[in-house]
Structure formats: structure tokens, C-alpha cells
Amino acid sequence: MGNKTNSIAIDGPAGAGKSTVAKRVAAELKFACVDSGAIYRTAALYFIEKYGDGAEKAIEDKALLKEELKKFAIDFKVDPALNFTVLLDSVDVSSKIRTQKVSNFVARVASNPEVREKVNERLRSFALKNKVVMDGRDIASCVLPDSRLKVFLTADAKIRARRRYDELVARGEAADLNDILAEVIKRDEMDEKRPVAPLVKTEDALLVDSSNMNAEEVIQHIVKLAKKEFEL
Ligand code: CDP
After folding, report:
1. Which residue's alpha carbon is at the smallest distance from atom 5 of ligand 1?
2. Nearest CA owner, ligand 1 atom 13
């Protein structure tokens, strides 16, 4: 236990509710909270804004990608209310990264090892200085493998799609349940099958299946696990 770091890793597939849960768990434990997916979304946004329909081609061009990765800066801020803000070249893009266009492209960007290296450096340097709840796909397996607590949060794909649909509708956005389910399934497959840092439950992670739990139940369950593990 001696070498464990003061971090809580929450990994899982698209729409399992990781961001909401991570934020609330962090608030209860007075930890910082980092949404690593938001950072991949920011990288995806950069390529979409710069290359439009040619974005996919651009990231496949190794030399171009190498140059591009030097050109933009991704940063993030966690304010006292634990709101997580991502910055692309110092501009707050927290809302812009939530479009369907970004959702459809992000897994492609995140499958690239050079992109991952750039993101991981930033994530690890933050975790060195802060007690953190970090959510993503490879936090336990790759980014912070020494996390004191590792949770794999999942739910049935249909339930995850339904939750995402309700979220979009609540925000007043047009949404189609079948399209969302197709996107969720496609993204799961890309995240699980990619050669670099695939989505995987590590042996030492605790499985939490939220199919029949509401957000509050999941939060309290993880807080309880954390209090035990961190002796709080
Ligand atoms: O839509 P959802 O909130 O579930 O996803 P997200 O956490 O915003 O992550 C968006 C995408 O970024 C994922 O589908 C992965 O392709 C990628 N990602 C990753 O590869 N590694 C992470 N640690 C986090 C996200």
C-alpha cells in the first residue's frame, strides 16, 4: 500500500455517468476532479475547427500530426465549486466540446499514441500535486496505475444511451435515441479494441454496474469505498 498515490481512478464506457459521479465524489471528499475525456474532446475540437471534413485525414498524416501537436496548448482549471473547465489555447471550450460532431470524432483522435502522450503528461503532472478523482478509459491501467482506489463504472448500453438522450433533451437539444445508441456502441467498440490504452477493467478495479442504480446511489457507494481505502 505504501506506494499508492492519493488518486481515485474511475474508468468505464461512454455514458456510464463517470463525469457526474467523479465530480460529486470529489466534492464529498474534498479532492480535485479531472475529466480526462474532456481533454481528448478538446484535441478533437482543435482538428475539427482547423480541418473541417478533412480532420480524419489530418490526424492520419503522421508528420502533420507531429507538427500540429506542437502548435496547440490544452489546459484545464478546477474552480472551488469543482467546475471543470478546459482551455484550448487559453480559450474556454467547455461547451463546444459537447457537440455530437466532437462525440463522433473523439475516439478516433484518442486512439492516436502521440495525442495520448501529450494528454497523459498533463494529467500525471496534475495528479502529482493534487489529491484527485480522475475519470476516463485508461486511468487505472495506464495514467495513474498506482491509484489507491480504482473503480470500473459501467451500465447496459441501452441504459447509457437513454441517459445521454435525457441529458440532451433536458438541455433543449435535438436528440435521436437510436442515433445515440449507435454512437455509444461504436465508441465502446473503438475504445475497447484499440491497440493503445484500450478501455479495460484492471484486475484490482472494483466493478460498479449502475444499470439499476441512480446517480446518488453510485456516488454514495464510491464515497464509502473511498473513505474505507483512504481511512477518512
Ligand atoms: O461521452 P463520455 O463522457 O462517456 O466520454 P468522455 O469521457 O468525454 O470521453 C470521450 C472519448 O475520449 C472516449 O470515447 C475515448 O475515446 C476518449 N478517452 C480516452 O481515450 N481515454 C481517456 N482516459 C478518456 C477518454
Report:
1. 14
2. 107
